[in-house]
Amino acid sequence: MPIYLDYNATTPVAPEVCQAISESLQLHFGNPSSSHSLGQAAKASIDQARAQVAAMISANDDEILFTSGGSESNNMAIKGLLHRNAVEPGHLIISAIEHPATVEPANYLKQWGIEVTVVGCDSNGVVNVEEIEDAIQPNTQLVSIMHANNEIGTIQPIAEISAICRQRGVLFHTDAAQSIGKIRVDVNELGVDLLSIAGHKLYAPKGVGALYIRSGVELEKLVHGADHERGRRAGTENTPYWVGLGKAAELITGTIDQRSSHLSRLRCALLDRLGELIDAPLSVNGNNASRLPNTLSVNFPNIIGSELLAASPGVCASTGAACHSGETKLSATLAAIGLNPEIAKGTVRLTVGTPTTADEISQAATLLAKGWKSLQ
To answer: If DSSP codes are grouped into helix, strand and coil, which group holds residue 246?
Structure first.
């Protein structure tokens, strides 16, 4: 069985979540919009799931909207806000290290006359707060900055940015797909107006997510039809998966400190062991900034990341650059932090999860070191 170190890409579904989904499929098959007992039982299970997701981020139940995942949540937040306020050409601010689920909606809005400003970051992948403040214009309607970067794990100064946005009367959205389940996420402490959640990053299935919408914030809906989700998203409720997301949220609530400590210990052990086994300096991206406790973006010298993983088939991980015909194409994040392409060729993202064991860490380090040596 390969050692899985790609938890930022997706997580396995927790056993408790699988059980909750299975029970829902069997017991709560009624349409939640139906007035009979089976329909109302399904509705009650959704209400419980909504409360569980809300509790995870310290929100109110009615501020949680279920979606099909992080991409839909980001699209709804960004396009829904800008389209609703389209009485005059608006302005959106994002960063250079955003996920495509933010970048592409922003690019789409340009077709509708929306101005988009992309702010940069430092060499550790921390966005420039002063640049965001300077970029705000009279017609700025939304700032969207991810909570934590999916590649190098850098945690952004969200509370500081949101305070500036409040002072300037601008709404603020954050994509928290990578941070939830790894660090504390409290919408009131962060001060955000909109926050995206992706189920498959927190041990729920793919194809389910949520959007936190602070009370009073109005969005143009993307999916039109019947009056589901209090008129904000049409479509018959995906009861089993929403219940699964609720169970995953319940597992996180109250255990986040222990999870963070566990992940941090594993990540540090992995880097230490790699340093012992590889007779060459290893550099870590974002090493001088606050990072997700599970994320290790390490630059292996004198190799190409994809070749290292091919030479280490017992380890499942990701690379940070694509190399074709002698050319290196950096990811948006590695390009934004100004990483030398020669160094970026050897970038590998190793991400641990709650099921990861110390023994797996030791084995993975040994396999990666062996693969690296075979390429020298």
So the answer is: helix
